[in-house]
Amino acid sequence: MDTIENTIPQRSSIEELYKQSKYFTNQWPLQYFADSMSEAVAVLNENQQIVFCNNALISFLDVVNTNDVIGKKPGEALRCVYARESKYGCGGAEACSMCGLYRAIMKSQKGNASKEECNIIRDSDYSAIDLNVRTAPLTIENQLFTICTMTDISAEKRRKTLESVFFHDVLNVLSGLVGYTELLPHATPEEMKEFALTIRDLSLELTEQIEAQHELTKAEHNEYVVQIEGIHSLSLLETVRATYARQAAAQNKQIVIHPNSEDFICASDEHLLKRILRNLTKNALEAISEFDTVTLGCSRKENTVQFWVHNPSVMPKEVQLRIFQRSFSTKGEGRGFGTYSVKLFTERYLKGHVTFSSNIEDGTTFTVTIPATLFEEDTQTLLPLLISANTQ
User: Fold this and answer.
1) How far is it, in rounded angstroms, from Cα 345 to Cα 196?
2) Which of 219, 286, 328, 356 satisfies CB 3.0 to 4.6 Å to 224 for a cystine?
3) Taking Cα atoms as reference points, which of 205, 207, 284, 184 lies closest to residue 247?
4) Which numeric CATH code is attached to 14-152?
């Protein structure tokens, strides 16, 4: 595949965009036909800028008219976070090389029709959309254009993922519960105690999985209500550590709290922060081998606090480039929401950001940085608690 650096096209002038747009808008049957389609349609010029679109795309983008779209590249019109990150806009970030929309456009510009799926994380609210993308080349007056149709398949992808989570992960836990309950009538008193603990742990794991899906659904629909309270950093980490220490995913593995972790109190949503750290810890346990260690830690710096989860494994580059996509999971197609929920919870609700590093020398570390006090109005209420704890 071509590198990002040598495939970034120049921008067309306003005059050139207007001239190219007229190729299509002056043909009223074409405009009528395009507007009759339910799929969002855009025509891109050789610089990958939109020169024509239909009403379905205008509606999908929730803009006033074509003037809000013409001249933009697809990712810019869709408000993709990576289009904002790169000085080149859409197609300029390293992650763009893994984008189905970008790949489909590049194939069309080489003369080949293409069909791809892509996941877009929007920069305004970190919501995600899944698209089925089709592209085809078109030449007019020796100029190359790309016809691009986009269908929103977010609901379908969400349904498939939820079905997979429940049919695979939840049924696995239920099978374990049934297995242990069948052993109870024949168990010795000592075995009864051990089985009871295992059944309790499996029940907690089942509850955790169902609650996680429910909370993600509420978060994506802007229905989650943030609850601010004082959070003891080390107590939070110990709760997360204890949650997974007895689960099957941690068998023959260690979960420890870094000795240099700082003891402080911050004002945020404890339940949501706990959910974020549990998600990262679970992912870390699944990534490591037997007898490896997952390390949890925390620190504070000025007006922010950091919580991090480290494991000694290394993510392949292609995984790193897709790690925050909604429909992507290292467990396979449709097998979960990966770290998408971590990014959504952290950035939309806790007003922070999540980063990661992964290399052979240092392993993989995910770091969640949030304000020490989420909302200014909570400062007065929690001030005595924060001062007494953070000055010790």
Assistant:
1) 34
2) 219
3) 205
4) 3.30.450.20
